[in-house]
């Protein structure tokens, strides 16, 4: 079951940005909770940056995902009253990406100073709205066995779609703008719609979190372990920590995820990396037996987490429980984090734009992470089938759709996953026209080995699992694949054939493309470096 809804990104107005102005704007990020009011400039003037909420946004969904198997409906009903809800579905439009069975939740951090708990972080900012510095897509695989967190830099310049201002009803025209301005212009629905339009990933739900509950959440976890490569002292952020591993709670934890210049190079993208490491530690702590087996701690944790969130109306108690039960086995080893590939935006280098084709490859990986029907298990009396790796499978890719260049495009995606593509070509249905259905085929003489090699290929194709067919298709033309590896001539197994039909769903690419492997943050990342 999958239901996509966009999470809204809280935002601020886009302002002219140059390196000096940007540095001034960033300086505000490191300021501690305000005990004395400072002057906030009127709208249109320069304002201090919002606190980046990435660390505690993920805590909320982590709690939702890991405790469902331990608590019944009454438990969730008890915390239901803490959660604020918002109806945004009507503003997302009808032209949305298809569902895939995955769970995609847009996570947003709010800098609202409303309410007694939030006003201590800037009482002078009350009544001036809310923005976000954090936009994260939480992707849970259809089989609920892995989590990918994709961070979107707040300063990304993007082509946003047309939206509607939720207060005035005015139409906000489509156009080039900074991604976090979409919330200020059109609310949560506009940010949700923007991310969905840009990535073509169907989003199921949104979760917005303010920072009032952050300290309570971290304290309910017993603190979160961090590691510093050096001593850190930041007077503005009230951060004074020694080198090495340590447990942080409350204000110290908040200062850690906020700080910029005392940690890293002062950029938003560098801070994103630190927050991603923090999220992994949160996942580790929230899935530990010490929390999950202590219902008192668990109750405190969920109460703290839910007290500071807003969700879409479809993420109700029943849906939360459904998600939690299906994903109850997730641990920190199941989670990876990555930032959308970016480069300096040429007209204004202080901003960024998404680097292509790497960004689209990442979005495609998320889109094609679809549920795969397991291959039938052999009967007890049948001999065990050998395991065949991608690198052992030789493939001919035949384009039966008539779309120019598709065979070469698909061949490249298969080769990137280790398959040995030997030839590409074209074919048509009997009597002409496109081939209606995609198939994976092997020579009739290769009835045994052919099915095994073909099964390895079918596991990497999107859509319903195909049953390999005996008998190959005769192509109208076929040529050697120019990028075929030297090992192609040394392999002795059968050559299987992928015939691309009109119902082609695509290649299931890895959830993190090979080009981004060195950018991934996961449980093996050393936070001390």
From TrEMBL:
Tell me which residues make up the LytR/CpsA/Psr regulator C-terminal domain.
392-504
Q: Which residue ranges are recorded for the region named Disordered?
A: 1-48
Keywords associated with the record: Membrane, Transmembrane, Transmembrane helix
Q: Which InterPro entries match?
A: LytR/CpsA/Psr_C (IPR027381), LytR/CpsA/Psr_CW_biosynth (IPR050922), LytR_CpsA_psr (IPR004474)
Q: Quote the biased-composition stretches of kind Basic and acidic residues, using this chain's numbering.
A: 1-29
**Membrane-crossing segments per the record:** 50-76
Question: Which NCBIfam families does the entry link to?
Answer: lytR_cpsA_psr
Identify its protein family.
Belongs to the LytR/CpsA/Psr (LCP) family.
Instruction: Return the protein name.
Output: Cell envelope-related function transcriptional attenuator common domain-containing protein
Q: Which organism is it from?
A: Planobispora siamensis
